[in-house]
Amino acid sequence: MAAYSVDLSTGNNYFDLNDIIASQEKIPCIFNIAVEGLGYLDQSTPDPDIGVGTKLELPLWLAKYLHRDARGIVSVETPKTYREGYRQILAADPSVVDLHRLGPHFYLAGGKLALFSLPDIHDILKTLLQTFQGRFRRIMDGSQNALHTDLTNQITMLDESERCLFAAGQRGLLDFQSWENRESEKLSTSTVVLNQRKRKWVGISRENGD
Fold first, then answer.
1. Is 72 buried (19+), middle (13-18) or exposed (0-12) by CB count in 10 A?
2. H or E element that contains 109
3. pLDDT digits (tens, 9 = 90+) for 176-208
4. Is 3.30.70.640 the CATH number for 1-77?
5. CATH number of 78-209: 3.30.1120.10, 1.10.3720.10, 1.10.486.10, 1.20.58.2050?
6. What is the pLDDT of residues 14-39, one digit of tens each?
7. Distances (CA, A) of 68 to 21, 45, 63, 107, 194
């Protein structure tokens, strides 16, 4: 069975669909210099250019390159769902929070905030880890009881990484039950052997004129 972990890596994984989707999450940015010809990105003004001090929400992948540019085109602010107010809610009781509503890729997108010079980034990463630790037990308990209990409400509150973990727990339970019932040890006739027997039977029938 594959291993699952909370991925807080900051790099891009171009072969991971979840990573690609997480990189599309928008974060608040402030333009430090004027940018010509991109005024259409700001729907609140008819100006053809983006002026200094303009606030826009940009995808993570775009904000990263603009922030790292030698000119420091944009500064990045902490997204709302990772600010102190939400961190306090998660610290109080992470197991009851609808994490999927805060962001379907809450952990993955949150980890990518380490790309930026946010003053509270250490608190954000600490919250991500503690939130996962606080929810892990309930997720695994639920995955072991999902066959006998309707856990639809619980599953809808999980972020995508947690849903993968939940599914892994279910597969582990089914594999264990299969082993316990000796279903994994049952021998069956190979398809190749069955086909050979069938051809042999057809040949004998033809020889006998059937």
1. exposed
2. helix 106-112
3. 888 878 765 555 666 666 677 666 665 556 566
4. no
5. 1.20.58.2050
6. 678 888 999 999 999 999 999 888 88
7. 21, 26, 8, 22, 64
